[in-house]
Design brief:
The protein starts with 6 loop residues before the first strand and ends with a helix. Helices cover 40% and strands 23% of the residues. It is of the alpha/beta class and 490 residues long. It has a six-stranded antiparallel β-barrel. The chain has a five-stranded parallel β-sheet with strand order 2-1-3-4-5, sandwiched between helices. β15 (380-389) and β16 (394-404) form a beta hairpin. The chain is elongated and about 80 Å long.
């Protein structure tokens, strides 16, 4: 999945006023900084140009826009770069933009500082001139200030890079829907035309009959190979090996269809299993572990967001997965939410080695008991995310949570599950989530942060709502009211 080799272009601002010697020094330093940053960041930083004219800036922006490997542009003004020459290029820029406000030297050299040093090292006001034009053009950008060799700066650049990769994945996202969404469910609906215009997603439907035809073409040898991989990755805790083989048949057929169409995510619904014996459970879970996105009951928004957030995570396929709030534990002082789904929770969220089990599924039209992975989620800080269609605009809701080891063993619950406390506390968090319109389907992530999701939403130019430790229903209602006014004016 997603073997693209993304890179980020480093464009440095200057001007001819300083003479050729200074420009040579600026270019050498910029190349050095790009090389050193590439050693500590998850993606290469490629020095492109010390831009001194409108034409140079416009040319490099045009190239960045049309080079798929370029996931974003990092700018820095080593010397004083007049911002009027940036207008045309920045107006045309379609890739995520980070303004790195830094300087080559960490300290002021007390004994050596003279006017030659001052003329060469003008980032302090060069970056302010550059910042003005970004504000004047009202361009979405990330401003990161600090010394370029400091770990704090590296961490912020890493976070921004991963959000920018999420944008690149979003722009090429294709979602395969097997059938439609669950009947009468409001939140899984949405304007697919507007989503494609805004986020780049192509969301289309394929017949379940096409999947069944693909399943019938899967060979026993292919099934043997995949079930062997299952045995290596998971503990087999069922004697119904045919159920496991059937899930392998489903997975192979789904994956072939996804890859043939270039789709990174898919949906299905238990209301449409025509020609199938089992709802894909283990099949879906293992596909998610490979980096594919998934949404239950035809929820294409959560499906695409799962794939995007996986790509934003560790090593380009992080611990993010489809989730649903199922039930609450409301004992005073022990308030927790229990998240699960019928079958389809990604094993990247597991605390230990998942088990393959088969059990009756009392919903849908399963002819036989589906095989699925059963596990407990791990403890730790995480987020849950929901993308909703507000009619005229998209809203991304992100809530901080604290996942815990489940406080109950739940021996008769044969599904993967995660237990957590929503911040600022369960009941306040639930009130705020409902007030904002958050869906029952979410993406739970241990790898992606609320800050990265804010960056992603800003890059995609959609509304962002964060529910955290300091959120109150009163503050949130006021925030939503003001945002509603602002977005109606855009």
């Amino acid at each position: 999945m997603r073997m693209n080799k993304y890179e980020f272009w480093f464009v440095v601002g200057s001007q001819f006023l300083y003479g050729p010697e200074v420009l040579e020094t600026v270019a050498a330093r910029a190349a050095e900084m790009a090389r050193e940053l590439s050693k500590v960041l998850p993606y290469p930083v490629v020095y492109k140009v010390t831009a001194k004219t409108n034409g140079e800036i416009t040319d490099v922006v045009k190239e960045a826009n049309y080079r798929d490997e370029c996931a974003g542009v990092i700018t820095w003004c080593h010397t004083f770069s007049p911002s009027k020459m940036w207008i045309n290029g920045l107006e045309d820029l379609k890739k995520p933009w980070c303004h790195l406000a830094t300087q080559y030297n960490k300290e002021i050299p007390n004994d050596e500082i003279d006017m030659d040093f001052m003329n060469l090292n003008q980032a302090a006001h060069g970056d302010r001139e550059h910042g003005f034009i970004g504000a004047r053009l009202r361009k979405p950008r990330k401003v990161i200030a600090g010394y370029w060799q400091d770990e704090k700066v590296h961490k912020r650049l890493r976070d921004w890079m991963k959000a920018a990769v999420g944008v690149a994945v979003s722009r090429s996202m294709k979602v395969m829907r097997f059938g439609d969404n669950m009947r009468e469910v409001a939140v899984t609906e949405g304007d697919k035309v507007e989503v494609q215009r805004k986020l780049g997603w192509q969301v289309n439907t394929w017949a379940v009959g096409d999947l069944v035809k693909g399943m019938n073409a899967v060979t026993e040898e292919e099934i043997d190979e995949l079930t062997a991989r299952y045995r290596d990755a998971y503990d087999v805790a069922t004697e119904d090996l045919e159920a496991i083989r059937y899930q392998a048949r489903e997975e192979i057929a789904i994956k072939k269809m996804l890859d043939a169409e270039g789709c990174g995510a898919f949906t299905n619904t238990f209301q449409d299993l025509y020609g199938m014996e089992q709802l894909p459970g283990l099949a879906t879970q293992h596909l998610m572990s490979l980096g594919y996105g998934y949404g239950g009951e035809g929820d294409w928004k959560v499906s695409a967001m799962t794939a995007i957030m996986k790509a934003m995570g560790e090593n380009g396929n992080g611990a993010s997965g489809f989730m649903e709030d199922y039930t609450y534990h409301l004992v005073e002082g022990q308030e927790y939410s229990l998240g699960a789904h019928m079958l389809e929770v990604c094993p990247s969220l597991a605390a230990g080695k998942p088990r393959i089990e088969t059990h009756h599924l009392g919903i849908g039209m399963n002819e036989k008991d589906p095989a699925r992975l059963v596990f407990e989620g791990r403890a730790g800080k995480a987020i849950v995310v929901s993308l909703i269609d507000m009619g005229g605009r998209l809203r991304l809701i992100c809530q901080d949570i604290e996942a815990v080891k489940p406080i109950l063993p739940m021996p008769n619950l044969p599904v993967a599950r995660v237990m957590w406390r929503a911040l600022p506390d369960l009941t306040t968090g639930v009130e705020c989530w409902i007030t904002a319109g958050g869906a029952h389907h979410t993406i739970l992530s241990y790898d992606v942060t609320a800050g990265q999701m804010r960056d992603w939403a800003r890059m995609m130019d959609i509304e962002y709502v964060h529910i955290g430790v300091d959120t109150t229903p009163e503050k949130l209602e006021e925030e939503l009211f003001l945002k509603d006014l602002a977005w109606k004016l855009k």
